[in-house]
Amino acid sequence: MNKVKGYHKIKDLAGKVINRETITYGIVGVLTTFVNFVSYELFFRLLKSNLIANGFAWVIAVTFAYIVNKRNVFHSKSEVLKDELVKVSKFFGARLVTLGIEQMGIYIFIEKLGIYRWIVKAALSVIVIVINYIFSKFYIFNKKRKSHN
């Protein structure tokens, strides 16, 4: 009987975690990662620097991610320019945090330890996608309204 009860708890948790939003975010995350990887490779070939190439790729990928996440994942609309600017600032600010994590990982694992760059990029991308979802869901595109007293 406990096995069935445990199964239902896992099923309920999976139902809360795996939904239209998280699936769409995962698809957008894969597309954003593709944009990032292609941009990174192009800039790496041009500049021969992992960190600089990653920085340029980040700008392109984050801009893409903001537009697609806003419209297709979180269905966020801002009626006032100020609200939109706040969301853009939060989005890029949060992404700067994960860029720092990624740059630190690239520096340590590629530059210092000599691990193959695509293995490092792939592993870091998974970590960054999860952290970015948490920021987007609960901080940037949070649908809770502030009460104006």
TrEMBL record:
GO terms for cellular component: plasma membrane. The chain crosses the membrane at residues 21-39, 51-68, 115-135. Belongs to the GtrA family. GO terms for biological process: polysaccharide biosynthetic process. The keyword Transmembrane helix applies. Pfam families: GtrA_DPMS_TM. Its main location: membrane. It is a multi-pass membrane protein. This is GtrA family protein. It is found in: Membrane. Keywords: Membrane, Transmembrane, Transmembrane helix. Residues 25-141 form the GtrA/DPMS transmembrane domain.
